[in-house]
Each structure stands twice: as structure tokens, then as C-alpha cells.
Specification:
By secondary structure, the chain is of the alpha/beta class. The chain is built from nine helices and 13 strands. Keywords: Hydrolase, Iron, Metal-binding. This is Calcineurin-like phosphoesterase domain-containing protein.
Length: 400
């Protein structure tokens, strides 16, 4: 794909924010060499800084100082299914991300469900889709984009333009669905209280005898954490995948930006929980690559920030680019998508903002440019972008 001199390149800029875990916010303080333990505590506290507070401040500043097209949250607004914090998180980030004086729907805000957003009792009583109804209602109430439940949600950014296609998917539909588990685990869980010990995932004969069995009086929060790690069973449902493929096969869909909570590739850190990896991730990856077009998948869940690219030489124009955002206490990503007038994705600029807990700051990291050209060579040098047109579109010429 070659561009002639003077051709216009569009760009779409978003912020990608990872898992929130609102109930667990404990602003960690920066280091102080306190030799005098009796020194005035109020002054000592004023000398400390919080990296979490720095992240929230940075988010706020970017929403008011940079032209953004959206802010996307990767799920897990709450922890351990505690519904009381989901509304608080929606309200907090609505106020934080939308500048004063703007209409309630000025800046598109995106949320996809995470496994920790699923309440255990709701899952058992309401079923696999209705358990998301409350968070979907909250998103509508605060003027956010529609939350995906059993079908993908598709829209374009910037709003009302022929810009980038965004597709939201629900990967948490299997969270706390006991029928997904082996019979011996399902029977055990039906009679189990969340306040008791986590489940031994060994053989049925080892209940109570496993060396991994925790103490008889475990901490409830730690117990619930293990529950929500063990009983996740993420997958993309057949209906969701069919809707996704139908969208991606549309003639004007030259590329797609998918957003879901769970990772499509196994995480770097070994994960000891047999039912927590996405059950059909390999099949989903294959289906996406066979579309022979660039697909960007944004996710959270693993509290880390890998950037991974999957391709198949049999589909030379196909690329699956997986970008993970860290937990919010570690920072967030700024992503700039460069597209042509023909609706093709040229590349992505990733700008990481990461925290330094020791001094309570958040810093802009080294930029990364990811080419989506089929030959693997980027003709665009981001550092050489010229001045922008009035509607924020840089005028590019081919680099020789």
C-alpha cells in the first residue's frame, strides 16, 4: 500500500485503562527516610505522594489537555463480585474523565465486564446473561457505551465519522457458571459458602486432605480472591463469536479494534488455576486471523502490560495484535491508531504511562510504534509527523 504525496492520514486517540478493583484502592505512599518517629505526623504525611493519585490526576489532565476520542476500561471495576462498588466506580470515572461544562455524553467512555464484576449470587439466581443487567443499566444511566452481554457491541470513533471500528465483547459470560465445571466440583460448590475455604481442585477423594488445603479459619477476602480466580471459566460464546465474525466480514471493515477483559494468550507468569484460561482462545485467534485483516485486541485481567503479535503466513494481511493494560495502580496506555482515507490501519503508537511507587509519580515511558503493514515495514516514522490539519489529521508524505 503506497501513499502519494499530500495524502491525508487520520488518527484516533484513546486511553486504555486496565483493571480498577475499586474496593482495593489503598493509595500507597512514597518513601520517606523518617529518622524521627515523633515528628509531626501531619507534616510527614504532606511530604508523601501517592502513585495512584498521580495516575488519576494524569488521566484527568489528559482528558482536558489532549484531543481524545474515547477512554476504554478493561473491566473489573469491583473485586470479588461486590456490587456496591460498581456504581461508585462508574460515577467516579464519569466525573473524572468528562470535563466540566461538557454534556454527559461528550467523551465516549467504554466498559467491558470482568470476572470480578460478576456477583456469585446473581450468577446462580439470574443466569448467564441477566447477571450483567445491573452493570449494563449503570452504564446507560451514566451515558457510557452499551455494555456487551450476549452480542458484540459495534460503533465507530470518532463518533459520527468513518473512523475506526470498535467492537466490544463479553469474555466473562462463564464467570460463576457452575455447569461449566466437572460434576464433583459443581456439587461441592452448590453446598459451599463463599466464607469457607477455597476449593481444592484436585481429585474428589482429596477433599480436606490436600496439602494445599488452607487453615480452618481463612481470611474471607483472601478466600474470595481464590474463588474468583478458580471459578472464572472465561470464553467467547458461540453467539458472540458469530456476531463478531459477521461484523468483521463487512466490506467496509478493513480492520477491527476489539475490546474484552480476558487475555487471548497465556500470561507470562505461570498461572496455577485450571479453569481460568480462556476456554476457546485458540479457536478465536484462528478465526480472527483467517479474516486476513489487522485485528487489535485490547484487554486487561492479567495486571501486566505485554504487547504480543500473532500472525499466520497463509493470511499475509492478517495480524492479531494483543495489547494489555496494567492494573490502574501501575498506570495506563495511550493508543493512537493511524488510518488512511480508505479505512486501512497503518499502525499504532503506544504511549505507556507507568507509576513509580517509591516516589509517588507517574511517568511517560518510551513510545512504541506497531506497524500493521502486510510486509511488516512501516513507511511512517511517527517522530516526523508534520503539522496537523484543523481536524487533527497529519499530512504525510512517503518516507524514502
Amino acid at each position: 500500500m503506497a501513499l502519494g504525496r499530500g495524502r491525508v492520514m487520520r488518527r484516533v486517540r484513546i486511553l486504555q485503562v486496565g483493571d480498577i478493583h475499586y474496593p482495593d484502592w489503598h493509595p500507597s505512599s512514597s518513601n520517606i527516610d523518617a529518622k524521627d518517629s515523633k515528628f509531626a505526623p501531619k507534616i510527614t504525611q504532606k511530604l508523601r505522594a501517592s502513585s495512584l493519585r498521580a495516575v488519576l490526576t494524569k488521566l484527568r489532565r489528559l482528558t482536558t489537555s489532549k484531543p481524545l476520542d474515547s477512554i476504554a476500561f478493561m473491566g473489573d471495576f469491583t473485586s470479588r463480585g461486590d456490587k456496591t462498588f460498581i456504581a461508585s466506580a462508574f460515577q467516579h470515572f464519569t466525573l473524572l474523565c468528562r470535563a466540566q461544562g461538557r454534556s454527559s455524553k461528550a467523551l465516549p467512555l467504554i466498559f467491558v465486564p470482568g470476572n470480578h464484576d460478576v456477583n456469585r449470587d446473581d450468577a446462580r439466581e439470574l443466569g448467564p446473561t441477566e447477571k450483567f443487567s445491573e452493570m449494563a443499566s449503570l452504564a446507560a444511566r451514566f451515558g457510557w457505551q452499551t455494555v456487551p452481554v450476549d452480542q458484540p457491541v459495534h460503533f465507530r470513533l470518532p463518533t459520527g465519522s468513518a473512523g475506526a471500528n470498535f467492537i466490544l465483547v463479553n469474555t466473562a459470560i462463564g464467570s460463576w457458571e457452575l455447569q461449566n465445571l466437572p460434576a464433583f466440583l459443581r456439587d461441592r460448590l452448590e453446598a459451599l459458602s463463599p466464607s469457607t475455604e477455597p476449593v481444592d481442585l484436585g481429585s474428589p477423594d482429596t477433599w480436606g486432605h490436600s496439602p494445599a488445603t488452607p487453615p480452618s479459619d481463612p481470611d474471607k477476602e483472601a478466600s474470595d480472591d481464590e474463588y474468583y480466580g478458580q471459578m472464572d471459566t472465561p470464553y467467547i460464546s458461540r453467539e458472540m463469536l458469530a456476531g463478531l465474525q459477521e461484523l468483521l466480514q463487512q466490506p467496509d471493515m478493513r480492520f477491527g479494534i476489539m475490546i474484552g477483559h480476558h487475555n487471548l494468550l497465556p500470561q507470562k507468569t505461570p498461572r496455577i488455576t485450571p479453569y481460568a484460561e480462556m476456554l476457546n482462545s485458540g479457536f478465536v485467534r484462528t478465526q480472527l486471523l483467517q479474516g486476513n485483516k489487522p485485528i487489535v485486541y485490547l484487554h486487561g485481567h492479567i495486571h501486566a502490560d505485554p504487547v504480543e503479535i500473532v500472525n499466520d503466513p497463509r493470511f499475509p494481511d492478517g495480524k492479531l495484535i494483543c495489547i494489555s493494560a496494567p492494573e490502574i495502580q501501575s498506570g495506563f496506555n495511550e493508543l493512537v491508531f493511524f488510518t488512511t482515507d480508505q479505512g486501512e490501519l497503518v499502525g499504532i503508537r503506544l504511549i505507556p504511562y507507568r507509576t513509580n511507587v517509591a516516589d509517588g509519580t507517574v511517568m511517560e515511558g518510551e513510545h512504541c510504534f506497531i506497524s500493521t503493514m502486510s510486509n511488516g515495514k512501516a513507511f511512517l516514522n511517527v517522530k516526523r509527523l508534520p503539522k496537523l490539519t484543523p481536524d487533527r489529521r497529519p499530512i504525510l508524505t512517503p518516507l524514502m
